Amino acid sequence: MTKNIQFIPGSDACIEGALYAGCDFFAGYPITPSSEVAEGLAAALPKRGGKFIQMEDEIASMACIIGAALAGKKVMTATSGPGFSLKQEGIGYACMAEVPCVVANIQRGGPSTGNPTHVAQGDTMQARWGSHGDHSIIAMTASNLQDVFKITVEAFNLAEKYRTPVVLMFDESTQHLREKVVIPEPGEIKVVDRIRTNIPVGEQYYPYLTDENGQRPMSDFGAGHRFHVTGLHHNIMGFPDVSPENVNALIHHLVDKIESKANEIAMYKEYYMDDAEYVIVAYGTTTRSALQAAEDYRNQFGIKVGVLELQVVWPFADEIVREKCAGAKAVIVAEMNMGQIVREVKRVVAEPEKVYFSNRVDNQIIKPADIKAAIRMITGKGV
């Protein structure tokens, strides 16, 4: 069988993943460096019977995909920097109303308009805490384009499974990089379809009632079932209910449905971790430099350095990170920000004083030499 092998940029790998997952609706507004995702889907979706719409701004784009998702579509939007900030109110609404959707945030330098054309990872905490109130979120990333494809498919799967927004935290470097990507045949990667109610039309349907399988099946607007959608605290019918008992149960559900599954949702990769005495924790493009640094120290100095790549950054996999770092003499967290995931690593490991930080915030990709400088400081070996 002839494989579908393409040499494409990261934006196209994301597009191919979305199409493979069944995305049939995109609404967005152009913003560097995410515009290529919108451009590609503008061309691809109509050919497949899908819909593309350019909205007047990022707020409207988020509202638009929420509406399309409630009408039964698998939906996506893409943005960066200031646009991601504008989407936060809509993301919070989707969390509260439990609307499955995928938001690709192609990270660039900030704050404010910052640097539209260079790399950064400064939105990591915003993905988790950007919207007000208590809720959980799923945020994912990747360091190579085959994984950009795979992670995008999984983002749609998790959105459908947990009825939640899922954020793709790709950074500028992965989106403008070109690599070989093998597009799997249909069925090679599992695709989760919309979980719809089997309640007959005319009978009572509860849109926010958990069934015996632990799921909350949906009904499409227009399918015949009557239900209400609101951003207010609501009961199982979707109507506002601000009683203390109901609010308590609802908030715990929004958090627990994701946080209690952190280990199940977690995706990560290990490199040279079997015998590692020093562990580099990285995510996104930073992983590539971390891997080179680890290999250099092993080959040149015989120092056993391993790399733990986080592909799901939220919910943070406390138990997995704690276990993988448990035997390390030191842990180096490499990020292109002022320290966001490093705080989480320090929070979960047994000896936070052994956690060190290597970073850049100058619009330049972090280099192996930057990470090796941290290893040299810790071990006293290196040049």
TrEMBL record:
Recorded protein name is 2-oxoacid:ferredoxin oxidoreductase, alpha subunit
- Record GO biological process: response to oxidative stress
Q: Which Pfam families match?
A: PFOR_II (PF17147), POR_N (PF01855)
Any one Gene Ontology molecular-function term assigned to this protein's record? oxidoreductase activity
Superkingdom to which the source organism belongs:
Bacteria
InterPro entries attached to this UniProt entry:
PFOR_II, Pyruvate:ferred/Flavod_OxRd, Pyrv_Fd/Flavodoxin_OxRdtase_N, THDP-binding, Transketo_C/PFOR_II
* Keywords linked to the UniProt accession: Oxidoreductase
Q: Note the NCBIfam families from the entry.
A: PRK08659.1
Entry-linked Gene3D superfamilies:
3.40.50.920, 3.40.50.970
Annotated Pyruvate flavodoxin/ferredoxin oxidoreductase pyrimidine binding domain ranges read 16-247
Q: Where is the Pyruvate:ferredoxin oxidoreductase core domain?
A: 276-371
Q: Does the keyword Transcription apply?
A: no
Name the SUPFAM superfamilies for this protein: Thiamin diphosphate-binding fold (THDP-binding), TK C-terminal domain-like
